[in-house]
């Protein structure tokens, strides 16, 4: 089995206008659904009935996982509506006049279709791009603040390229007002694939909380606004679970094979993938991260295979930090064994928390404030001053201060 890997790229559509598109596989849904033998996290797509539906709302761990689900969902939509056949159920607007759009010939290739009736290429937009593209007089209240600062709020001279084609649209709706989104979706007769990456939702909180290892990520629950939107917009919903290990292992070997390499027998693929998931935590991006780690290992490999030592180099820093984590736990246990000294323990643990927060801010790219780690332990003989000094010294050393 050849695992589906989306090809996403930025390309020039018309003069001065670039866009992001994904290439749709030429395989029919009947062929692609065999992938669900390994890709069990996507199998719930088979349970959807997409006949005459307006669109689909996808929640996944990352953007790349959502786009993969979007490709399968689009093929399922084509299959359910018998597109490309004489019995086609879903009809696009037959009155669409391409002559109304200037420079249409520059993007005519975006109208090309496969034998099953699906378009060969589909645009990927942000929710802000989509909403703003339908507003002749831009309204700053219908777009997020960052985007509003980057653009000139004047009517555009021409409509965006994707308005001159009838293909589906894949839209990242993170930070997009659902009510405005629903109104704009009603303006055109096309199939919408909306997605939301849980990594985007968790990112705002990751600086101040321990998000845990990759396997501990919690699934996002729909709020009432989202439920109302899905119901009123007449779209289906699917939540993509975490990719199973057999799927990731197959993807791991396939990626190496595509680069002309083999994974040496000494490499435990599941162990490497588990390290990768734990290392990336909530930012783990299945296909992209596996491709990244293979490319990193290739820099150290010699010959036609990638060995265990090549991957150990990549995770050396993470391996040390895991060992440090164990040492940290032992140091805190030793502190808690001491009788009394409640206020002293609390003060030391506050320093520990401050160090952890500073390290998290540093890794996230935020500025940090330098704090001195000097401490004076005063008291009468027999009050465990030596033990306390030993705890603070060993902990600071573990944290590499």
Outline the fold blueprint.
Layout: E1 7-14, E2 17-23, H1 29-32, E3 55-60, H2 63-80, E4 121-126, H3 127-132, H4 145-150, E5 169-172, H5 178-185, E6 192-197, H6 198-203, H7 224-232, E7 235-239, H8 245-258, E8 262-263, H9 269-280, H10 286-298, E9 305-306, H11 308-314, H12 316-337, H13 342-363, H14 385-398
Parallel strand pairs: 3-6, 3-7, 4-5, 5-6, 8-9
Antiparallel strand pairs: 1-2, 2-4
The major β-sheet equals: 7 strands, mixed
Number of structural units classed as domains: 3
Choose one word for the global shape: globular
Strand order across the largest sheet: 1-2-4-5-6-3-7
What count of helical segments does DSSP give?
14
Q: What portion of residues belong to β-strands?
A: 5-15%
Mean pLDDT score, rounded? 77
Report how far the terminal alpha carbons are from each other. 50 Å
